[in-house]
C-alpha cells in the first residue's frame, strides 16, 4: 500500500519536533511504501538536512513554509475575478458576514436566517472558498502574489464591514487587516504546491497527515482533487495552540477573532473530510469533538514509547530503598515542586525515615530560578540530619540530575525509589508517569491532563494543589510494600499493553487497512489515446502490502527496485506501461544507497 | 474531591483517612467511555456542594505559583495566609457564586477572549480540567467557558488609541550615507577641474566608479533599500541597466545631440563644457547631491504613511490621506533638486540643464519608491521606454546622414531648433515621470504596499 505521509516541520528533518513517532511508524511498517511530503518551518531546519531514511520511503518532496518568493504569476482578468470571489467568500465565512445571496434580501429575519444557516452552512461556505482558491492556484500555477495583493485586503475589509460580521471584526483597522492577510497568506501557502497531481499525492492509496492545521491542508486538497482518503493524526490540538499563542502576545482582537475563525473552520473542514481522525488522549479527543469531528471516525492511538530502556528495571523484583520517594522530570513552575516539598514535610511527620529525591534539570531562566527557589525551600523545611553524633549529615531532600553518580540513567532514577510522585498542576501527556509505569513503580500523581486515563487505576491519584492528600497517598504506599508491588506490576502491565511503540504502529497499521478497505481508491487507467483500459488495475492491486512477498519479482538483486511502483504493484506489463502512476524518479536518497 | 470523604477532607483534618485518593483512582474502570466518566464525575461532584472542596480554597494562590502574573490582582488580601495554611473556613470564600470568583481570577483572559474556545484553552493552560469544571456544575471546560464568555461584561469598546507605530528613525550613518554620493561626485568634479590629459581621464574613471559604489551602498541600506518592506517584487534586471543609461545620457547625451545636429561631434569629450563634445557636469553633480533629499523624502513618506496606516480605520480613508503625502514628499524632493541644480550651475558656471535634470530626478525617485514598495514592473517599463526614446532620438540624427534618410532627423532637428538639445530628454523623462506619478498615486496609496514583512524565522 502506498501511503503519502504529510508532515509539517517534522519527520525527515533532523530537527523535526514530532519526528520520532513518524520515524518509528515508517520504520515499523516496512510492508508499505511511504511517500514523504514535508513542509519545513525554518531555513535552519532545511539546512540541517534529513535523517537517514529507510528503504520503504520511496520519495520525499519538500516545500518551505517559511518563505514565499513571488512566483511571478500574473492573473488575467478572469482569474482575478475568480480570486476576488473566492477570497471574498473565505473572508465572509471568517467574519461571519452574511452571504451575497442573503445580503440583498430586505427582510431582516430572512437574511439572518439565510446568513446564519447553522454551522453546516458556514462550514460549506468556508470549504467551497478554500477549494475555489486551491483550484485557482492549480489552474493558474500560483497564488502567493494574489494573496499579498490589495485585492485580498479589500476583500477582507468588505467582509468585516458587511452586515452580520462579528463584533470584533467590525472594529478591524487597516493594520489588523494587513496582519490577517499576511497570516492567511502564510497559512494558505500549501494551496499553491504542485503535490495534488496524479504523480504526487494522487498516487497514494491513503494520505496520512502527521498533524492538524496547516499540515492537514495538503491532505485535504488531495482528498478534494484526487479522492485520496485522509487520515489525520493529532497529538496536540493546533487550534488550542493557536489560541494560546495569539492570546499571549497582545494581538488586536480583530486579528485574533478572524484568525481563530480561520483555524476553527479549517479544523472543522479537516475533521469533516477525514476518514479517520486519531488522537493521543481524551483531552485532544474532546477538542476534536468540539470542533465537529464525528465520533464514529475518532480513534485513540496512544503515543508509543520505547520500553526497552526500562525493561531490566521493570522485570527485576523490587530491590530498592523502601523509604524513598522519587520525582523525575524537567523542573518547571508548572510541576509544582513547592507543593511536593510541603507534602513531603507531612510525609516526614508520619514517616521520619522518608527521603525525597528530585531528579531532573532545569532549562531556561525561569526554570533555573524556580529550581533555586525549591532548593532554598527544601533547605528551610528540612534541616540536615545525620545518623549519629559522629557522622556527616545530609538533607533528606536531594536534587540530582540524570547522568549523575546516583542516577546514571532514567531507569535507575525510577528504580531508586519506592514510590514515584508526580505533582504537576498542568500536564499534557505525562511522559514521566508512563516511564515510571514501564519501570513497575508504584505512583502517586495529581489529577491533571491525561494522568487519569494513562494510569487507569494502577496508581494513586490525588487532586492537584493538595499537599496533604498527596502526602497521605504517599504515606499509604510507603507503609504497604505489598500494595506497592501490586500496583507497580499492574502499572507495568498496563503500560506494556497501551504505550509501547509496537502497539502504536499496530494501531496505525490496523487503521490503514480499515481505511483502505472502506474507501479504496478506484482509478480509471487510460491508454495513450485516452481510452479507458479495462482490467488495468487487477484485483490484487487492492491487496494491502506486497502479496507476493517483500522481494520484488522483477529484479530481486537490486534492493532499490521495490520502491518503483511498477514493481510493487503487480499487474500485467501492458497495464503498467500505461499506468496513471508514472514510475517515480529515483529519489536522491535511493540513489545514494 | 469526587468522593464525599475526600471533598470533606479539609474540614476534618484530624480524622485519619485511609487511602484518601486510591478509592477514586483504583475504582475507575478503564473501559469507561470519557463522556460516561464525565457524567459520573458530575453526578458525584454535585452532591456535596462543589465550593467546599480543596480546589476553591487553593484558588487564590494559583497564579503566584504558576509564575504567570496574569491575574495576580485577583488574590484577595487574606490569600497569603490561606496559601500557607489552609483554614477550613477559608474554603467558604466565594461559595455564593464560584464562577464569578473564577472569572475574577481569570478576568484578563475573559476580557480579551474573542470566543468561548479561547477561554477554554486559557483555563486548561491554568490546569482547569473537566473535573474542576464539574465543581462549577458544568459538564466540561467548554460549557464552563461558554458561561464565562456569556457573563463577562464587555464595555462597548472604547476606540483603542492608535498604537504608536514603531517608526524607524534615520540613524546618523544613514544620513552620512545619503550625503556620500554627492560628496564623492563633488570631489570627482573638483578633480576634473584641477587635472589635465591622461590624469583627468583616470580621475574621471575613478570618480564614476566611486559615485556608483556610493549610490549602490545607499540603495542597500536605509530608506531607499528594499529591505523590511512588502514582499520584494520580482527582480527586473533591466531596471539597473536602464538607470545607468539614463544617467550617462544626462552627462553626455545633450552635448552629443547638440554637436550631432550641427554636424559633429569633432572629437571625444575632454571633460570640459566647452569642448567639441561638451560634458554636462552640473546636472550630474546636482543629481548625486540629490540622493540626500531623495533619501529623506523616501523616509518621510514611509514614516508618515506608516503613521497614517496605524491611525486609519478604512482602506479608502488611508488612501485619501496618503495621496497628498506622496505628492508632498515628491514636491519637496523636486524643490530641493531644483535648488541644488541652481546652486551647482552657479558654482560651476555651467548651464544647469534644469528641465532635463529635474525630470530625470523625478523619474528616478518615483521608480525607486515604487520598487521599494514592491512594484517592480512599472518602473522597469517606464525607465526602459525613456531610455529607448532617447536612444532613438540620438540614432535618428546619425541615421539621417545616410543617403536618402534625411527626413528621419526632421522631428529631432525641429525640436532642437525650437528648445535646444535638452528638450529631448526633458520631454522623454517628463512624460515617463508623469505616468509613474499617476501610477504611484494609485499603487502607493494601497495599504498592502505599506505592509511590512513579518519577521520570518
TrEMBL record, chain A:
Signal peptide residue numbers: none
Residue span of region Disordered: 98-121, 550-593
InterPro entries linked to this entry: DUF3492
Superkingdom of the source species: Bacteria
GO molecular function, one term: glycosyltransferase activity
Gene3D superfamilies per the UniProt record, alphabetical: Glycogen Phosphorylase B
SUPFAM superfamilies, alphabetized: UDP-Glycosyltransferase/glycogen phosphorylase
UniProt keyword annotations, A-Z: Transferase
Tagged with keyword Transferase: yes
Keyword field contains Cell inner membrane: no
Domain DUF3492 intervals: 1-295
Biased composition (Low complexity): 550-573
Database matches in PANTHER family: BLL3647 PROTEIN, GLYCOSYLTRANSFERASE
Protein name: D-inositol 3-phosphate glycosyltransferase
Native organism: Streptomyces spiralis
UniProtKB/TrEMBL annotation, chain B:
Membrane spanning stretches: 201-219, 242-261, 281-303, 324-348, 354-371, 378-398, 418-438
Keyword entries, A-Z: Membrane, Transmembrane, Transmembrane helix
Spans annotated as Disordered: 1-93
Key word Transmembrane present: yes
Listed Polar residues bias regions: 43-61
Keyword Transmembrane helix among UniProt keywords: yes
Biased composition annotated in UniProt, kind: Low complexity: 67-93
Protein name as annotated: Integral membrane protein
Amino acid at each position: 500500500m502506498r501511503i503519502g505521509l504529510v508532515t509539517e516541520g517534522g519527520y525527515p528533518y533532523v530537527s523535526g519536533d514530532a519526528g520520532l513517532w513518524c520515524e518509528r511508524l515508517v520504520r515499523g511498517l516496512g510492508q508499505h511504501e511511504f511517500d514523504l511530503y514535508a513542509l519545513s518551518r525554518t531555513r535552519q531546519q532545511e539546512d540541517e538536512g534529513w535523517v537517514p531514511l529507510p528503504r520503504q520511503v520511496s520519495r520525499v518532496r519538500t516545500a518551505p513554509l517559511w518563505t514565499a518568493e513571488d512566483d511571478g504569476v500574473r492573473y488575467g482578468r478572469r482569474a482575478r475575478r475568480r480570486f476576488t470571489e473566492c477570497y471574498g467568500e473565505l473572508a465572509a465565512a471568517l467574519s461571519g458576514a452574511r452571504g451575497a445571496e442573503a445580503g440583498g434580501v430586505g427582510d431582516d429575519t430572512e437574511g439572518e436566517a439565510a446568513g446564519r444557516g447553522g454551522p453546516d452552512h458556514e462550514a460549506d461556505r468556508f470549504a467551497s472558498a478554500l477549494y475555489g482558491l486551491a483550484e485557482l492556484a492549480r489552474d493558474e500555477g500560483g497564488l502567493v502574489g494574489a494573496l499579498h495583493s490589495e485585492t485580498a485586503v479589500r476583500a477582507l475589509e468588505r467582509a468585516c464591514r458587511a452586515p452580520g460580521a462579528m463584533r470584533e471584526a467590525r472594529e478591524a483597522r487597516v493594520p489588523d487587516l494587513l496582519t490577517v492577510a499576511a497570516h492567511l497568506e502564510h497559512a494558505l501557502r500549501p494551496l499553491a504546491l504542485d503535490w495534488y497531481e496524479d504523480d504526487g499525492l494522487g498516487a497514494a492509496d491513503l494520505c496520512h497527515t502527521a498533524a492538524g492545521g496547516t499540515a492537514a491542508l495538503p491532505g485535504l486538497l488531495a482528498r478534494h482533487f484526487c479522492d485520496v482518503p485522509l487520515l489525520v493524526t493529532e497529538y496536540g490540538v493546533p487550534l488550542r495552540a493557536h489560541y494560546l499563542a495569539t492570546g499571549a502576545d497582545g494581538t488586536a482582537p480583530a486579528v485574533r477573532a478572524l484568525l481563530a475563525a480561520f483555524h476553527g473552520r479549517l479544523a472543522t473542514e479537516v475533521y469533516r473530510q477525514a476518514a479517520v481522525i486519531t488522537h493521543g488522549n481524551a483531552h485532544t479527543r474532546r477538542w476534536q469533538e468540539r470542533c465537529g469531528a464525528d465520533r464514529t471516525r475518532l480513534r485513540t492511538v496512544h503515543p508509543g514509547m520505547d520500553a526497552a530502556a526500562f525493561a531490566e528495571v521493570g522485570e527485576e523484583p523490587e530491590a530498592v530503598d523502601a523509604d524513598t520517594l522519587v520525582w523525575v522530570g524537567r523542573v518547571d513552575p508548572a510541576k509544582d515542586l513547592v507543593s511536593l516539598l510541603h507534602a513531603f514535610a507531612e510525609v516526614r511527620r508520619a514517616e521520619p525515615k522518608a527521603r525525597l529525591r528530585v531528579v531532573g534539570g532545569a532549562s531556561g531562566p525561569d526554570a533555573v530560578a524556580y529550581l533555586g527557589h525549591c532548593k532554598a525551600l527544601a533547605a528551610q523545611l528540612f534541616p540536615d540530619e545525620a545518623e549519629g553524633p559522629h557522622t556527616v549529615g545530609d538533607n533528606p531532600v536531594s536534587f540530582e540530575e540524570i547522568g549523575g553518580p546516583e542516577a546514571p540513567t532514567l531507569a535507575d532514577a525510577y528504580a531508586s525509589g519506592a514510590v514515584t510522585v508526580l505533582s504537576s498542576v498542568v500536564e499534557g501527556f505525562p511522559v514521566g508517569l508512563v516511564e515510571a509505569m514501564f519501570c513497575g513503580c508504584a505512583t502517586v500523581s495529581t489529577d491533571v491532563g491525561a494522568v487519569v486515563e494513562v494510569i487507569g487505576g494502577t496508581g494513586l491519584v490525588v487532586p492537584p494543589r493538595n499537599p496533604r492528600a498527596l502526602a497521605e497517598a504517599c504515606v499509604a504506599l510507603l507503609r504497604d510494600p505489598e500494595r506497592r508491588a501490586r500496583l507497580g506490576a499492574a502499572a507495568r502491565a498496563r503500560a506494556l499493553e497501551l504505550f509501547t511503540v509496537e502497539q502504536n504502529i499496530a494501531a496505525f497499521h490496523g487503521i490503514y487497512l480499515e481505511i483502505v478497505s472502506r474507501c479504496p481508491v478506484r482509478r480509471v487507467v487510460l491508454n495513450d489515446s485516452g481510452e479507458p483500459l479495462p482490467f488495468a488495475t487487477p484485483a490484487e492491486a487492492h491487496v494491502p502490502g506486497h502479496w507476493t512477498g517483500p522481494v520484488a519479482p522483477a529484479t530481486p538483486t537490486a534492493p532499490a527496485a521495490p520502491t518503483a511502483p511498477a514493481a510493487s504493484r503487480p499487474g500485467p506489463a501492458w497495464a503498467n506501461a500505461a499506468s496513471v502512476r508514472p514510475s517515480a524518479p529515483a529519489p536522491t536518497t535511493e540513489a545514494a544507497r | 474531591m469526587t468522593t464525599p470523604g475526600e471533598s470533606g477532607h479539609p474540614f476534618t483534618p484530624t480524622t485519619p483517612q485511609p487511602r484518601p485518593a486510591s478509592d477514586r483512582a483504583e475504582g475507575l474502570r478503564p473501559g469507561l467511555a470519557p463522556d460516561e466518566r464525565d457524567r459520573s464525575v458530575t453526578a458525584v461532584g454535585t452532591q456535596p456542594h462543589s465550593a467546599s472542596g480543596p480546589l476553591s480554597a487553593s484558588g487564590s494562590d494559583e497564579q503566584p505559583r504558576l509564575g504567570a502574573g496574569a491575574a495576580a490582582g485577583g488574590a484577595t488580601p487574606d490569600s497569603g495566609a490561606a496559601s500557607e495554611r489552609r483554614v477550613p473556613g477559608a474554603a467558604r470564600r466565594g461559595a455564593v457564586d464560584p464562577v464569578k470568583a473564577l472569572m475574577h481570577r481569570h478576568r484578563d483572559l475573559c476580557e480579551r477572549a474573542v470566543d468561548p474556545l479561547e477561554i477554554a484553552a486559557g483555563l486548561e493552560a491554568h490546569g482547569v480540567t473537566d473535573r474542576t469544571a464539574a465543581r462549577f456544575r458544568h459538564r466540561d471546560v467548554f460549557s464552563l467557558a461558554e458561561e464565562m464568555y456569556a457573563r463577562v461584561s464587555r464595555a462597548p469598546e472604547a476606540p483603542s488609541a492608535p498604537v504608536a507605530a514603531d517608526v524607524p528613525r534615520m540613524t546618523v550613518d544613514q544620513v552620512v550615507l545619503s550625503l556620500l554620493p554627492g560628496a564623492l561626485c563633488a570631489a570627482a568634479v573638483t578633480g576634473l577641474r584641477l587635472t589635465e590629459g591622461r590624469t583627468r581621464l583616470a580621475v574621471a574613471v575613478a570618480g564614476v566608479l566611486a559615485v556608483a559604489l556610493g549610490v549602490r551602498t545607499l540603495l542597500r541600506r536605509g530608506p531607499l533599500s528594499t529591505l523590511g518592506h512588502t514582499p520584494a517584487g520580482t527582480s527586473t534586471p533591466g531596471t539597473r541597466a536602464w538607470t545607468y543609461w539614463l544617467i550617462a545620457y544626462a552627462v553626455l547625451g545633450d552635448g552629443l545631440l547638440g554637436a550631432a545636429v550641427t554636424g559633429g561631434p569633432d572629437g571625444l569629450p575632454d571633460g570640459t563644457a566647452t569642448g567639441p563634445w561638451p560634458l554636462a557636469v552640473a546636472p550630474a553633480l546636482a543629481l548625486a547631491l540629490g540622493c540626500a533629499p531623495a533619501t529623506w523624502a523616501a523616509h518621510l513618506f514611509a514614516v508618515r504613511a506608516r503613521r497614517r496606516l496605524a491611525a486609519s480605520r478604512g482602506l479608502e480613508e488611508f488612501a485619501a490621506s496618503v495621496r497628498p503625502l506622496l505628492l508632498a514628499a515628491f514636491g519637496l524632493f523636486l524643490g530641493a533638486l531644483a535648488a541644488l541644480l541652481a546652486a551647482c550651475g552657479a558654482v560651476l558656471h555651467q548651464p544647469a540643464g534644469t528641465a532635463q535634470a529635474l525630470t530625470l530626478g523625478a523619474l528616478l525617485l518615483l521608480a525607486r519608491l515604487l520598487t521599494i514598495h514592491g512594484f517592480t514592473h512599472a518602473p522597469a517599463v517606464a525607465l526602459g521606454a525613456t531610455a529607448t526614446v532617447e536612444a532613438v532620438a540620438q540614432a535618428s540624427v546619425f541615421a539621417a546622414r545616410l543617403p536618402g534618410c534625411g527626413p528621419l532627423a526632421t522631428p529631432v532637428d525641429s525640436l532642437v531648433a525650437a528648445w535646444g538639445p535638452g528638450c529631448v530628454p526633458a520631454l522623454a523623462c517628463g512624460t515617463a515621470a508623469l505616468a509613474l506619478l499617476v501610477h504611484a498615486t494609485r499603487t502607493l496609496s494601497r495599504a498592502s504596499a505599506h505592509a511590512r514583512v513579518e519577521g520570518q524565522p
